[in-house]
Amino acid sequence: MSLRAEGEAVSVRGRTDGACHLLTEIASPAARNDSDRRGHRAAAAVAQPGTPLACPSDAMLSPTRPTLPQPPLAPPALAPSGHALLLSEHPSLIGGPPNLFKSLSAKERTLLLDQGTRRVFYRGATVFRQGAANDGIYLIEHGRIRVFYASPSGREITLAYWHHGNFVGAPEVFGERSHMWSGIAAANSVVVHFSGSALRGLVMRMPALAVALIEGLAFKGRCYSALAQMLGTRSVTERLARLLLHLVDAYGVAESRGVLISSTFTHADLAHMVGATRQWVTISLKRLAERGVLESHRGRLLILQPQALRRMQEDGDTMS
Fold first, then answer.
1. Which of 139, 189, 257, 319 has its Cα between 20 and 30 A from that of 296?
2. What is the pLDDT of residue 317?
3. Domains recognised in the chain with CATH numbers
């Protein structure tokens, strides 16, 4: 096994370890927060010889750390995929696609992971770039990858935020053409890269892997179709209301006055998801705050009246 730095990424050749497996998305926000705290406590254990590498926290992925330890490797556990954050009216798409490993035997999982390169991307690092040559897929072990399309004028539309258990780099999974969109790490992330040539050879030998890839691509196709439907049939106000409700479901933490969206999203992040300008989102959030629907402070949103957002989504309230 080798370790090397690549810009903002660190690569480890070989199987992924058991500790940093495809983590189950914990249903309750309180449980998710507890899981995050355990991730930070795990940082101290990583330096111990023979200790499996835990999923990295922001502190563990600090650029000041020149290398990562080389732990014993083992196949990942069969946890469900994490949720996907995307603009959609279909709840079935929010739960994420089927796990890529679900139909593979233990021997097949080991064979697959032996062909992968484990890489760490710091927040903001480019995983793959629109127009660049495709070289396979990236299976997300930990973190969050934003996939987006940029127009020639530079305007961006976010296609989705993909979490653990999802793979990105599609649809050209065998790396024969150029990337149709870009992917960046929206949080410190760990992925396993499978080259197109290695993946082609594996699917010829493992029909269950071929089926899993087809299921994953079909899921992504439904996601992007749902996004096109929302952009074409819903007003921007309705899309913003739907997005805020989705954030409540995905990241909401109940508080005495409402529901806090525990993950930080800038006005530009929200604008890229609903197909609007940052200025429009800023004005809209200000109007919602004046109406007592929410409070916004330094990228954190406290939703005070979710029912008002539901009315906006259903009735097309223009916030006038």
1. 189
2. 56
3. 3-231 (2.60.120.10), 235-315 (1.10.10.10)
